[in-house]
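# step 3/5: fold
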Amino acid sequence: MKFDQITDNGNLWAVRYDNCLDNVLDAILDQWNDVRWLRTLFKQNIGDLASYFKITDVNQAIYDTIEDSERLQCLIMDISPDANLDEIFRPLENSRTSEMLLGKEKARLRNTPRHASWLRIYAIRLDPGIYVITGGAIKLTRTLQEREHTLVELARMEKVRIFLIENEISDMDSFTDYLRELN
């Protein structure tokens, strides 16, 4: 597992899993713009799309996904150096009220024009305003536990969290030390 720096100020990182050429942020953004991949996903999950979002037109779902992906990419990638990532990322569990060590977080678009956005970017919070992206998903159900593709993202997030703990990484200072030891 490697870590790619996304923002120049070092506040946003993305995991590059073993045997992968791209980091997860690049991979999910590519996937969310792949019409064939999206068509397959939405056809396989048309029931969820219809019941949760009231959308039965796969082409509309593809269009909405690509549009939302571009907006989310702008939000994540075009961050000014003084931007507060804590305003973008929120606790994964909506009921969590306190901070936790290496907390699991999610980012999504707010105030989308037609319906709530189903795009999610998942990350581990190293310190206030500092995140490591672990993956992302199209969430078409109320909880992540309801579908295989979102369960995979939960597992990946936990795998990264365990990796960080096993390598004695608990904040940005220890993360920096770990990266320095690799070079």
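# step 4/5: annotate
The chain has a mean pLDDT of 90.
# step 5/5: archive (pending)
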